[in-house]
Amino acid sequence: MTAVRWGMLSTAGIGRVAAAAIAASPHAELVAVGGRDAGRARRYADEIGVPTSFGSYEELLACDDVEAVYIPVPISMHTEWTVKALEAGKHVLCEKPFAVTAADAERCFDAAEAADRLCIEGLMYRHHPQTRLVQRLIVDGAIGRLAHVRAALTVSVEPGDIRRTTALGGGASLDLGCYCVSAIRLLAGHPTRVHAARVLDTVPGAEGGDLRLAATLEMPDDVLAQLDVALDFPRRDELEVIGTKGKITVPDPWLCRPGYIELEVDGHTRRLDVDPDDKYALTHAEDPENTDAYRIEFDAASQAIRHGETPLFGRADAIDQAAVVDAVRQAAELGRPVTPAPSAADPALTAHS
User: Fold this and answer.
1) Is the pTM of this model over 0.90?
2) What span, in angstroms and rounded, lies between the C-alpha atoms of 191 and 324?
3) Strand locations in the chain (E)
4) Enzyme catalytic residues
5) Per-residue DSSP letters for 183-219?
6) Could you give the CA distance from residue 107 to residue 111 in angstroms, rounded to a whole number?
7) Pairing label, strands 232-243, 146-156
8) Which of 133, 181, 202, 231 has the smallest CB count inside 10 Å?
9) Burial classification of residue 161, based on how many CB atoms lie within 10 Å of its CB (0-12 exposed, 13-18 middle, 19 or more buried)
């Protein structure tokens, strides 16, 4: 398979991780970077070893050598530049959260269908064998009937950081909550009712954004799920899946670095290797820059593009994801439970799949 030629729309910090991931992928090649300043874009491209740079996003999108675009711009700009890239004839992998609302997600996929191009939301952990193992254990009944999912992601960032800048789409529910909501949906289906509470950020530039948020989601088949996110807590990456006969603990659910998960049944805990055949994943010691999950994501996206395949996570998933994140935010803002829009996916595919 000929490697897919990628362009990066932005000189964001996460782009360095993406560049390392693409460099390690046999299916992808990073050929160009586009920024808002030509000098800065050139310096950034030199730093990450990319031959071509452009001083505007529009110039990169006009480059015929670029087949697909990775978009890590601020959240508030995701829909705008995803649509523009698709209209320019590029495939798109857009960083999470793909869209702020379900309507924005639909706009993007309408543009993708009109352009006959692929559009993918960048929640990289979903492609990792660690996540696939957790799904298999649930389906196989390793912990009995699924009863509860608990997810958390907290970080500590200073005022003025983009993640706390309201005008750019900052706030804990969007920047961090998308991971937790995604995991809950992936493992337990589409929620029927959402309860949430939040603490508002008050520093200049962050007014109105959520500094911390906690939510309880009512899921199909009497499953309950809880999440908590924060932008002023110590770093916490947590995922716990509880069944009627045991539980699964995922020590690093989003970056997938340790190489194992823990399965507890009847009071006995054992570690399970997430990739016993060493086909996909690296350990944290082998991959200290956390690029492995991103590499697997770019592998999956590139192979779907090259072979004209339907991505594992497509239109309905992205619309549902945006709708549930929005419902969590609404429930916190209104101070009362909110019922998310019905799933855009086939109902048979939404529970425990």
Assistant:
1) yes
2) 8
3) 4-9, 28-34, 52-54, 68-71, 91-95, 119-122, 146-156, 193-200, 210-218, 224-230, 232-243, 246-250, 260-265, 268-273
4) 96
5) HHHHHH---SEEEEEEEE--STT-TTSEEEEEEEEE-
6) 6
7) antiparallel
8) 202
9) middle
Strands across the sheet containing 246-250 = 193-200, 210-218, 224-230, 146-156, 232-243, 246-250, 260-265, 268-273
CA distance 97 to 328: 14
Contact 154, 103 (CB under 8 A): no
Question: Is the model's pLDDT at 279 over the cut of 90?
Answer: no
Could you tell me the two tokens for 230?
């924060």
- 51, burial (CB in 10 Å: exposed 0-12, middle 13-18, buried 19+): exposed
The token duo for 308 is 């004209």
44-65 tens-digit pLDDT: 999 999 999 999 999 999 999 9
Cα distance between residue 70 and residue 124, in whole Å: 13
- Of 317, 281, 260, 304, whose CA–CA distance to 21 is shortest? 281
Domains of the chain: 4-124 (3.40.50.720), 126-276+316-349 (3.30.360.10)
Dihedral angle over CA of 318, 321, 327, 328, nearest 10: -150
Residues ≥6 apart with Cβ < 8 Å to 279: 129
**Furthest-apart CA atoms within the chain: distance in Å:** 61
